[in-house]
Write a structure and sequence with these properties.
Elements lengths: L7 H4 L1 H12 L5 E6 L6 H15 L3 E6 L4 H14 L8 H17 L6 E5 L16 E5 L9 H11 L4 E4 L12 E3 L16 H10 L8 E5 L8 H12 L5 E6 L8 H12 L5 E5 L5 H10 L2 E4 L8 H8 L4 E4 L4 H4 L7 E3 L2 H13 L1 H18 L2 H16 L9
Parallel strand pairs: 1-2, 1-3, 3-4, 4-5, 5-6, 7-8, 7-10, 8-9, 10-11, 11-12
Helix pairs in contact: 2-15, 4-5, 7-10, 8-9, 8-13, 11-14
The protein binds uridine-5'-diphosphate (UDP).
């Protein structure tokens, strides 16, 4: 595990000093994170790096995962899709099972920490256990909230408004809420296996392992197989571009334990891919960070053709590697990409195909986008900034009666 000082070369000493100062003011405070999966997806990715780093700073932070049956995760995935704008109807039984599973988890878990950070809707009803204590409960939303289904949001809002504060990833997700809303965007860890620098031999050996030709352009999208990541759209983009330019497509992704839709999406992708030898559909097991890192580094262009996106860590990961990225102009992605400056933002299959052709034909423009993208990630989306935001929020909630907190 990386040590705090290892981050100095990316962020400088002042930032690290600041983190240590804030952390020292939280001594004796226990911070408990709860989400719905230990592996797969951005939330687990962030917590895997953030908890050890908080601990390294001397903060007493921990992470628990709620349990649920297949049906529960089907309901929460439906909820997830509804919050992303899909029209869905929940039966009374579904609502009951959602609440019962939250209740069951609440009874089995120790929920007494000073600060409770509950991630996303799946465990949001744990708040019913709050009671009359000095605890501070924060609801951290990682979802693209630009256009949530009104019924689903009305139902969840009842619980969310019992929290002391909420966190959203982008200004465009702000809601009308009775509780304070804080904007904290996610981050990547430059020293994780997913993002650290790799020797060329490692990159080459990963390409060899998957039989990918390193002499021809490689277009890559790394994502869970989820409709909202539009993997079928990515294949169509590739098929259009390949008529003009000889290239290969890598679609790599695994599943998440709280996402039951993956298999269905994958089978739809397999159908459009047919037996195309230039499309590499890679099903990666959870511990594939080095492989993903290598695939991103080996790529000529990275796509993230999302239709909705809370933030899109994969965009940050690719930009960190100075790769030119073409991504859907949705959710948290425009925070990371300024169109035509640090990447290209697109809305359609045709638009994405046009952008991809342009970048494949103009490597110096592509390089410039990647380099600008890297600078933006370094400045705004590294784990140190994320932890700083969190520590400040914790301090402000614990000292709520004071206008000024003397550090
Ligand atoms: N990821 C992974 N293996 C996969 C697919 C994705 O490790 O097979 C990682 C990816 O590198 C990124 C995270 O999972 O770190 C996905 O986060 P993102 O915000 O892009 O999307 P989410 O899955 O949370 O919607």
């Amino acid at each position: 595990m990386a040590k705090l000082n290892d981050y100095e070369k990316y962020v400088g000493t002042d930032v690290l000093y600041e983190l240590e100062l804030y952390a020292s003011k939280l001594s004796g405070v226990v911070i408990q994170n709860i989400n719905s999966t230990a592996v797969g997806g951005g939330v687990a990715e962030i917590l895997t790096r953030m908890i050890p780093m908080l601990q390294e700073l001397g903060v007493n932070a921990c992470w628990d995962v709620i349990k649920g049956g297949e049906k529960f995760f089907e309901i929460t995935k439906k909820m997830h899709n509804a919050l992303h704008g899909k029209n869905v109807i929940f039966t009374e039984d579904e609502i009951d099972l959602f609440l019962e599973t939250n209740e069951m988890n609440a009874n089995q878990m120790d929920l007494k920490s000073d600060i409770m950070v509950i991630h996303d809707p799946q465990p949001c009803a744990l708040i019913r256990k709050k009671g009359n204590t000095n605890q501070k409960w924060i609801w951290r939303c990682h979802i693209d909230f630009s256009n949530p289904d009104p019924f689903t949001w009305k139902f969840l809002k009842e619980y969310i408004e019992q929290y002391d504060a909420s966190i959203f990833s982008a200004p465009s997700f702000a809601r009308e809420l009775k509780i304070p809303q804080v904007l904290i965007s996610p981050s990547i860890d430059p020293l994780s296996d997913k993002n650290k620098e790799l020797p060329q031999e490692t990159i080459d050996s990963v390409l060899e392992k998957f039989n990918i030709d390193k002499k021809r352009p490689i277009i890559t999208q790394i994502s869970r197989f989820d409709y909202l990541k539009d993997p079928v759209g990515v294949v169509k983009v590739f098929q259009r571009v390949r008529k003009y330019i000889d290239c290969q497509l890598v679609l790599a992704g695994g599943g998440a334990t709280d996402d039951p839709e993956g298999a269905q999406v994958l089978s739809e992708v397999e159908e459009v891919v047919a037996n195309d030898p230039d499309i590499f559909l890679l099903l990666l097991p959870p511990s594939s960070d080095i492989e993903i890192n290598a695939l991103q580094r080996a790529s000529t262009v990275i796509l993230q053709k999302s239709l909705k996106e809370g933030f899109g860590l994969t965009v940050a990961e690719a930009l960190w590697k100075s790769k030119p990225v073409i991504a859907g102009a949705v959710g948290g992605i425009p925070l990371q990409i300024a169109h035509k400056y640090s990447g290209l933002l697109t809305h359609t299959i045709d638009g994405t195909a046009f952008a991809l052709k342009q970048l494949l034909q103009n490597p110096s423009y592509a390089r410039m986008l990647g380099e600008n993208g890297h600078k933006n990630i370094r400045k705004n989306f590294l784990i140190t900034r994320h932890i700083r935001d969190y520590l400040l929020l914790f301090l402000s909630l614990l000292n709520k009666k004071e206008d000024i907190i003397y550090l």
